[in-house]
Q: What sequence folds into this?
């Protein structure tokens, strides 16, 4: 199931956000269930070809959101969460959009400017 995690280096979305969003989607869609053990930080970093600290940041973020549980010297696992109460988007695309909106607001980028930029990216990628 973790083999389905992939990183798109050209997406413009930070790698750690892509990984976090993918793991949240796996939890929300019940592809990984409460109590399921996650790969170690080192295992997942090696599998995805990313820095150890990147995965560590993802796991810390998921733990802060009470989506996973971990403790020093033990494997991390999916927390027992009420998926309906999570109010998480239904697809990885929605997760990326939510992150885009959050970053745009923090950066004081207008909705109009975000939409223009997204449209430009669609046009650019359709040409490539």
A:
């Amino acid at each position: 199931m973790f083999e389905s995690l992939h990183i798109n280096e050209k997406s413009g979305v930070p790698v750690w956000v892509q990984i976090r969003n993918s793991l949240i989607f796996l939890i929300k869609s019940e592809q990984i269930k409460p109590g399921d053990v996650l790969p170690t930080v080192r295992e997942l970093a090696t599998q995805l070809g990313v820095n150890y600290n990147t995965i560590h940041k993802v796991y810390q973020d998921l733990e802060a959101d009470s989506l996973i549980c971990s403790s020093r010297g033990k494997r991390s696992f999916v927390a027992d969460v009420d998926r309906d109460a999570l109010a998480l988007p239904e697809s990885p695309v929605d997760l990326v959009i939510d992150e885009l909106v959050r970053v745009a607001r923090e950066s004081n980028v207008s909705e109009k400017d975000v939409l223009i930029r997204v449209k430009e990216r669609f046009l650019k990628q359709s040409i490539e």
Q: What stands out?
A: The chain has a mean pLDDT of 86. The beta strands are 68-69, 77-78. The two ends are 31 Å apart (CA to CA).
